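Q: What structure does this chain adopt?
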Amino acid sequence: MSVAVREQKRSAWGGGYSPFKVEYGKLMMWFFLLSDSFTFGALLISYLTTRFATMGWPDPNKVFKSYPGASEFANAPLVFVSVMTFILIISSVTMVLAVQAGKEMNKKAVIKYTLFTIIGGLLFLSCQAWEWTHLYREGAWWGRNPFPNFDGSLSSPNFTNFFFTITGFHGFHVFSGVIINIVMLIMAFVMYSKKEDII
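A:
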């Protein structure tokens, strides 16, 4: 005599397993990215609201016209800002290549691209340190704005307050990424061989 065993279907709400089969580390990374996006979003929305509510604003072509090694009369509008943006984009590409190499179990490529990403992050932070120092020497800081508006009138400190707050927060974000990548590089060098442990 055979006994039919009926398997009870588990409820998705019963607990005990991940409904999306997502690893803990990946889930926490998504939480971090979301919180980071919300913070940057809040800062940028605040900036845009203030920018459009303010009658005057400095001309960015006059504020960001210098670069390292240039004379004080240099006039290269937004060139250095473009270089910094290019460095960030390239280091994002090398990070994607490092992750892909990890999925392919290519330890050499993981080390190479993670190292390139770290160098890109350090280059960007060096550029930002130079930019902050340069602006500080020109008299710009939180609460101080030496740059006139487009029409030549006196400008409010809103521009410098937002500039130093948003770029400072972004600099901290890049610095954190560099530290995490250094840890990942050390781990790739000395320890792990399993695919999920590399990246």
